[in-house]
């Protein structure tokens, strides 16, 4: 029986207020678990409207946020929706403070900027949930060396900051980071649409095929703004099909629950473009010290 962990990125104010409650209802009806990664600060999604292809699936208000309209403070306006997620039994974690700015700057940002962004997200998360976060999922799978170091320094149980095949300890520039990574293993619906899928339903078929033909457990990343609103019907069909195949739909923490984390393999990380997205993303590389 395969386990498929559902990683839900919540990028915008509307996604938090509208997409998250819809996803909670959908997941509960299917007895599925998931991990919600929340953006906690300003919603500047409008600034990427002409640069980030998934934005064409967003509603008009979201596409103007932070551009022609003031950037709403997601954590201030949507804290109740976030707490509802935890109260419903789902795992909650940090996505970013300012998601758009993180994706744009982190690859070349200095240490002070990275620390300030993560500190703001940590403080807001703790103010909303009453406890510090135990996991981090980088916006756009974009990180740098210092951000990786901070996942260890902040005492996280795990992070999900990259694309790859299975859980591992990351190694960057020869430095082992003692915070395991649980990478996204499957393509996303919006990526497949950009690569030529004629519809969300066709993209779902491709996700199902990938999850079937590639062995092992999987992590599927979805967005509250897309699968929770625009692609809701297609996502429900994906859930139903996985369950018909006998797969367990779990939170990311469940992939580590029965493992000896200390024995996870060590892999270098690389930065490269992936199909369906522009710009470098963090990837699971070769086994460390592999000949």
TrEMBL record:
Residues 2-250 form the NodB homology domain. SUPFAM superfamilies: Glycoside hydrolase/deacetylase (SSF88713). It holds the Pfam family Polysacc_deac_1. This is Polysaccharide deacetylase. GO terms for molecular function: hydrolase activity, acting on carbon-nitrogen (but not peptide) bonds. It comes from Accumulibacter regalis. One of its GO terms (biological process) is carbohydrate metabolic process.
């Amino acid at each position: 029986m395969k386990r498929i962990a559902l990683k839900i990125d919540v990028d915008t104010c509307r996604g938090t207020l509208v997409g998250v409650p819809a996803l909670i209802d959908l997941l509960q009806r299917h007895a599925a678990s998931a991990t919600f990664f929340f953006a906690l600060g300003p919603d500047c999604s409008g600034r990427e409207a002409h640069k980030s292809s998934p934005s064409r699936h967003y509603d008009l208000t979201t596409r103007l946020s932070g551009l022609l309209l003031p950037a709403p403070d997601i954590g201030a306006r949507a804290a109740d929706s976030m707490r509802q997620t935890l109260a419903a039994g789902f795992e909650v974690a940090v996505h970013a403070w300012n998601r758009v700015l993180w994706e744009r700057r982190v690859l070349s940002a200095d240490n002070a900027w990275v620390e300030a962004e993560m500190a703001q997200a940590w403080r807001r998360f703790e103010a909303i949930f009453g406890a510090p976060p135990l996991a981090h999922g980088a916006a756009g799978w974009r990180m740098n060396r210092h951000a990786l170091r901070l996942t260890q320094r902040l005492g996280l149980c795990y992070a999900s900051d990259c694309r790859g095949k299975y859980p591992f300890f990351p190694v960057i520039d020869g430095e082992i980071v003692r915070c395991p990574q649980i990478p996204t293993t499957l393509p996303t619906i919006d990526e497949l649409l950009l690569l030529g899928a004629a519809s969300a339903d066709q993209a779902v078929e491709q996700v199902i095929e990938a999850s079937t033909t590639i062995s092992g457990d999987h992590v599927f990343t979805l967005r509250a703004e897309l699968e929770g609103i625009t692609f809701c019907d297609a996502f429900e069909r994906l859930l139903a099909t996985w369950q018909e195949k006998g797969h367990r739909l779990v939170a990311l923490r469940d992939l580590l629950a029965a493992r000896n984390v200390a024995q996870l393999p060590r892999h270098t990380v690389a930065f490269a473009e992936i199909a369906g997205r522009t710009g470098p993303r963090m990837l699971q590389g070769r086994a460390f010290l592999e000949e």
